[in-house]
Please model this.
Amino acid sequence: MTETVPRPTLEAVAARAGVSRATVSRVVNGSDAVREPLAERVRQAVEELGYVPNQAARSLVTKRHDAVAVIVAEPETRVFADPFFARQLRGISKELTAHDNQLVLLLTEDRDDHARVGRYLAGGHVDGALVISLHVDDPLPGLIRSAGVPTVFGGRPDFSGGRDGVVYVDCDNRGGARDAVRHLIGLGRGRIAHITGALDQTSAVDRLDGYRDAVVGADPRLVVEGDFTSASGERAMRELLDRSPGLDAVFAANDLMAAGALRVLRERGRRVPDDVAVVGFDDMLPIAEQTEPPLTTVRQDIEEMGRLMARLLLRTLDGTGAEDQAAGGLILPTTLIRRASA
Amino acid sequence: MTETVPRPTLEAVAARAGVSRATVSRVVNGSDAVREPLAERVRQAVEELGYVPNQAARSLVTKRHDAVAVIVAEPETRVFADPFFARQLRGISKELTAHDNQLVLLLTEDRDDHARVGRYLAGGHVDGALVISLHVDDPLPGLIRSAGVPTVFGGRPDFSGGRDGVVYVDCDNRGGARDAVRHLIGLGRGRIAHITGALDQTSAVDRLDGYRDAVVGADPRLVVEGDFTSASGERAMRELLDRSPGLDAVFAANDLMAAGALRVLRERGRRVPDDVAVVGFDDMLPIAEQTEPPLTTVRQDIEEMGRLMARLLLRTLDGTGAEDQAAGGLILPTTLIRRASA
DNA sequence: ACATGATCCGAGAGCGCTCTCGCCCGTGGA
DNA sequence: TCCACGGGCGAGAGCGCTCTCGGATCATGT
Model:
């Protein structure tokens, strides 16, 4: 609507500065092959005309887009309840904009979406992709692979065992979980239950493994599967109390579920931490601080994970060899944060 | 990395189908000016070669990008705590992808970011913009205006009074608030407090106005300002109880704050709804359902707002006249959802 | 049979940019 | 003084697409 003012082109700037297009291009792209008096004249012309390069024309020849896709592969509701994604997204966004790259967001819910994403990536509209919250049976990695788009995953993909060239960033889920449970053991707790996350995600599996590392030969009735939502935390806690009334500690695979567990424990009249100690995972603020009592939990720096994912990808795209240093996975450390719940 | 297979061009498809570029272009873009036997041959060639149009080349001539920017103008922490944004984003995403448009996400925190966003929009990289969560003192609308990019706002901008051409989608904040408070009055409550949202957002102001519509000449001590976070809800509730111990109802400007208020009320030994009735706003699931007791609240369809914003913008971009039908604002209705808290 | 449209398709220009190539000019060595 | 050399700059091609325009083809009216 309304006639858009035609934006000045390289040609126009060149004319105004009395030089050739090539020279303007050189100046704009920061080449040092233009001597000072001229370069300055060009810069001034750019300024005066308010010239902004046409990205489409540029991409047409460079085959770079300075854009990366961020794929949020969460089928349903969790994205809404869990601040996790927003936080990771922010980390990614920061790093990306710091390097003048655009963030193209792709939200997927079902298989149809995956096909669409596959087509999109194959279409070569972006230079790379970042995948958040992948589930094990997801066809996405395959699509991405065949699209040939450089990709960094957030969280270890389930097939990363040894498949070549898979790059991911994750936190030390297993080690963090182990620390959490050992802390409970150190508190003298003997019947430690675990509420797992959605076991179609490796983070949940790894945390479960960490739990098992610490509690060798754990009573299987002390482990209940949740799905990272607080509702599932409540459900799991009820089940645990019904099955094993004698439990004296709970390690939940994230803070949201821990908060749910806390509610049920209160409802059932168990004192925390006196009767039952509770530890979460994520240190998701403000949730972890506002539970009653405040949650002892395993901190992971989610925003940093996002930043790192983006940095890794950009480095790959630059050709600044990421192959060597990061192929495989980058694992961030976790810290146990002690509050009142355990 | 690794040599990317050069993608087939229009030219290649044309050669294979034994037609001209122009004809392939016509088929690809769904023109009906190609007769059937030929069109089919082209389609087959496209299929066989796995041809995908080069968006950059296309944009270069059409001056359209089929991309819109979504600007989340939230300075800080709220984006993380409140599922609001994720939900609106999903609505936007759905509508956009349904029309083959890309979603370019721009997260802004401070003034520097705004300048960057302004430059980005002025750069003409996107066809339009969607702005979420605008604050009153924000320079963004000005930047957008001077960039000349068609824009739809989520939530009424503070200057929308009569300024020409401002398009926005909002829910009936004032009416919804009025209904909520009238409901409390209908319950026989006489001292109804209000916890406002961040008053630099029109939604908070409008809800406050709705409250005042219903409680004419309200005791100013019954109104405390919050900022939409649950922590602020707790703080406000404490202040209210200290100042006006006799209150018998609270209307909070969103569910998060209502949940905070609920916690404080329980902590202070007030029964809900017997001693104090509580109403929230948003019907943010699962929060509203999982409070204790479940929250009576004003429902607004956030995802639908997102969808509508996108639809309005796309329509404007198509030239399918949105000027007439939507210039000004589109206000969605709200519904009071009765649960146990009031 | 020929003129007249209408319809379908191809030729070609051009969108705004980058980048190679070669020209020109200035400098230094003989 | 002349030649070789090198670095700064311009000319021009071409990225992959769209779209106008005109030519070819075919049905139709007379």
Remarks:
- The longest helix of chain A spans residues 302-318.
- The radius of gyration of chain A is 25 Å.
